Amino acid sequence: MEMEAGSTSASGGGTQAHSYSPLRSKAFYKFTQQNLPACKPNLTPARVIAIFLLAGVVFIPVGLVCLRASESVVEILDRYDIECVPESYRNNKVAYIKDSSISKNCKRLIKIQKHMKAPIYVYYELDNYYQNHRRYIKSRSDKQLLHGLEYKDTSSCRPEEYNNGLSIVPCGLVAWSLFNDSYTFVRETVELRINRRNIAWKSDREHKFGRNVYPFNFQNGSLIGGGTLDPDVPLSEQEDLIVWMRTAALPKFRKLYGVLEEDLQADEIIEVHLVNNYNTYSFGGKKKLVLTTKNWLGGKNDFLGIAYMATGGFCIFLSILFALIHVKNPRPHGDPTYSYGNRKSTTS
């Protein structure tokens, strides 16, 4: 009997542990029916007008500050892909860029309009270049970049997977088309030093490109796509490649080439000795050299300031419009005649 009582109490205890809880069920019902306590603002016309007016008063000064910061950035752009082609080849630029016997050296003169304080960032800008094309962007092997020849499954790199029966490191069209124009800056016969270290993301250098992975069988085929790589330097230190492998989302993009660590004074003339190697003529692309400074907001970008000012102006316009409507056709707060049922009965 005692055992039966014990077992009964045990089973009863088990039943009690899984018993129906009215409080829990009620809370779950309120949650599913969206009846939990919540903030439900009472948006009267006066409050709506005040909110839009406040947003406009805040956004417009923020936009002016952003626009002023953007205008303080000094930026110089120089398109050189046409001017660096000899006159005799202006009508056939593809033949010029593919002929290795023709010198690709070019000299450009850049006048500094305003004082540029170091560091001065040197970018190359490409236009009409679709790095986001599906076949192009998938033609790479991130695991091979990290593990080298140890990783064998490189089928995603086609058509640049093998050359003469040997694997290519790094493989794929993205690496094969590496940008290979070069720039040298001279001021009054003195060459300016370009710092080309730490131009790639630290996370890419340390976690995506192997420290013991070296280029192998790269650009050894009959069709050369772009730049070559030093076979004695690991991929984690080949920052040109690392920067290039972070593909762009839009057809017009910039990639960091290096950093000038000397100030450039206003009205100075800088000689740029460049090598015009990269073929953008086959697809109607454009190449530009960009020198720019930066500030607390980053580089030159007028869009952010204009967007803030446009949004602020629109908010103020709406607040004035709502105020005029409210003055012309005032609606008493809480008037039951404006409810849906009363409107329907009045109309009928």
From TrEMBL:
InterPro entries: CDC50/LEM3_fam. One of its GO terms (cellular component) is endoplasmic reticulum. It comes from the Eukaryota. The keyword Transmembrane applies. It comes from Musa balbisiana (Banana). Its main location: membrane. It is found in: Membrane. This is ALA-interacting subunit. The keyword Heme does not apply. Belongs to the CDC50/LEM3 family. The chain crosses the membrane at residues 46-67, 303-325. Keywords: Membrane, Transmembrane, Transmembrane helix.
